[in-house]
Structure formats: structure tokens, C-alpha cells
Amino acid sequence: MSKRLSAARREFDPAEAYQYPEHLRQYLDGLPAAPGVYVFHSDSDVMPLYIGKSVNIRSRVMSHLRTAEEARMLRQSRRISYHLTAGEIGALLLEARMIKALQPLHNKRLRRSRQLCSIHLARGMPVIVSAKEIDFARTPDLYGLFSSRRSAQQALLDIGDGELLCYSLLGLEKLSHGRPCFRFHLGRCAGACCGQESPQEHQLRLVDALQQMRVVAWPYPGAIGLVEHSGDRRQIHVVNNWFYLGSVDSLDQAAALNTVARDFDRDGYKILSGPILSGRHEIIELA
Q1: What pTM was computed for the model?
Q2: 218 with 242: CB under 8 angstroms?
Q3: Where in this chain does the record put each GIY-YIG domain (predicted)?
Q4: Which residue, of 79, 102, 125, is where some domain finishes?
């Protein structure tokens, strides 16, 4: 057995993966069986180790005993704190905001992307656009949210391959007018480039394929409050342009928030589009 392997085994005993470290047990009794966000803190007050969310904080925190990595994180933690919310939506929103603000060591998701891109249908032609160029919250005919132009282009290539679309009509390659593309000769293009199918048929297949990735434009003139209930707790989540502005307990508090539209937020859209568009939650227009 190598010295490195022996050292690793001394560092981590598998049996310890199912036992909470003694110094954290004082925090477990006070954890609520309610929705919210929990935080594993290190010695630093600035950067926590991990931020998570659950509809049952106590149950979720107690479940952090499944892997060697989680066991190591627990040993590194010095205390556990929590923040209650009115339900799962509030927990998701607060978790995303805290992760972005605090950048915990063990969270690798929900971080700000450097270049948010989408596929925009402009006069029937797909064009890759950046959130720096247009307002994603207010622009119709956007499809997909991508972290880079390359990933957006790859999605368009995948659609082309799956639907036998012509790369030239997708703007992905140049082609002499009326001549079949190379992929047509390979049976990978249905022939819109050379009259074997109509441009209308080609366009219908493209739009159908894009629909599952459609980004819905912000459906309100200004900020709204999404009301969420859990037992006796009620929260109003204030949102504008799919950007989460904060959660309050009353409309008076909502009015005090700065509800001016912010830049489009991908995580806010992913969390909020379902609840807002479903019609299952009370929506209060604030502007």
C-alpha cells in the first residue's frame, strides 16, 4: 500500500461518513422542518463552505452524510445557520442570490455566466445574440439560454442534424444559390438549398424544433409580486424582467423596494418562469 493511500485512509474513515461531527451537533436540534436555505460556515465570515435549500431544512441538513466529500466538508464546518422562506420558490430564489453573492467553496452552480447568449429568429433566420446586445426579458422570438456563442451554435447544429435542415439556410455556412450543399449529398439535408423541399417546410421544422427552448418575454409592464404561502407564513417575491428583487411580507414593504428593471437573469428565469406562467400563484402587479 502506497504512503499516499495510507495517508488518505487515515484522513477519512468511512464510518465517520454516517456520524455528524461532535462540534456541529449543538446546531442540529434547532433546525426547523420547514422550507428555507441553510449555510455551512467555515472559520471565515466572508466565504461559507456550502449553501443549500430544501422544503425541509432539518431533513436535508441531516442527509449530508452520504459521501466522503460531504464528510470532509462537515469536519471543516464550524457552525450551521438557516433562513426560513414561505416555500420552495422562495428557497430557490434566496439560494441563488446567496450563492452568487457569497461564492461558497463547495457550490459550483448558479454562478454568473460571462456571456449569456440565445438564438433569435429575425425574419425567419436564426441569429445568435448576446444579452449585452439586446434585452432578453423584453425581446420576443428568443430560443435557449446559453453560456457562450459556441454552445448556442452547437445547439443550432444539433437541431440542423436532427431535423435534416440545411446549414446554409441556418446561416452556418455559405452556399452558391441553387446548388445543393455537401450534406444533401450525404442524405443529411432534406434539400431546401436546392428545391427538394420548400423554404416553408424547412422553416416549419426549424420553428417546431426551437419551440421547446422558447424564452418567454416578460409578460407584465413592470414589477410584480408573486405570492407564496406555506402554513401561516406568506411571502411576496418581487420580480421585474425575470430578475428577483427580494422577498417581503407585505405590499407596503414591496412598495419600498427598488422595483426598477434590472438586467435579465438566467437563474431567475429558470426558477420563476414556471410558477409565474402556470397561473397557480397569486400575482400582484406593482407598477
Answers
A1: 0.84
A2: yes
A3: 33-108
A4: 102
